[in-house]
Structure formats: C-alpha cells, structure tokens
Here is the input.
Amino acid sequence: MKSFALQNNCGPRKLGLLGLLLEDMSAVTISENLTDTYAQIDAYSRHRNQLFADYTFKTARNMGKNDVWIAATAALLGLKLVTTDGDFDHLHEVFFDVQKLKLADLR
Here is the structure.
C-alpha cells in the first residue's frame, strides 16, 4: 500500500491517513485454512473449482497472486473487501462482499 501511494504521488495528508490505517491493522498468520481458501478462490476464478456448478461470470479471471492472497484473507476472516478496481467483482457475494470506492473520492 505504501508503494502504491508513493508511485501515485500521494501527498503528505494521504500518506498520513495511510499511516493511521496501517497502525490499526492486524497481522494474519498464513495457515492451512488460509492456503485452502486461497486454492478455492484461485480455482473458482479460473472456472476450475469443482465445488461450483454455476459461475456468475462468463470467462475465467486471471487474478494476480497478491489479489488472491487479499481475497483469501478477506474470505477466511469474513471481511468486506474494499477496493477501487474491479479485480474482485466476480467474488462478490460468493466469498465475501465487495465495496467499490471511486479513486477520485480518495483525493
């Protein structure tokens, strides 16, 4: 997140807000439950999860590995995933709720 903020020329106010947000976060230990959830989401995104007969999206999604880790963590912990892009849309109401923010609202 810090790298993204720096690469997008976020000013001192945004960097300060990001710092406050990161101070309030908890670390999650990678466990077998998390890796199992990762595998389920990765397979689902590729239309290859045998636990699902129907998919809400037509073509397979090639998610970045970091996004799959983020999704797996949100799913395992029962969290709402807040994002500014559509990379997680196909997982909405299947593994967790997705809340989309407009990047312009964050400036």
Observations:
- Strands lie at 81-83, 98-100.
- The radius of gyration is 15 Å.
- The mean pLDDT is 92.
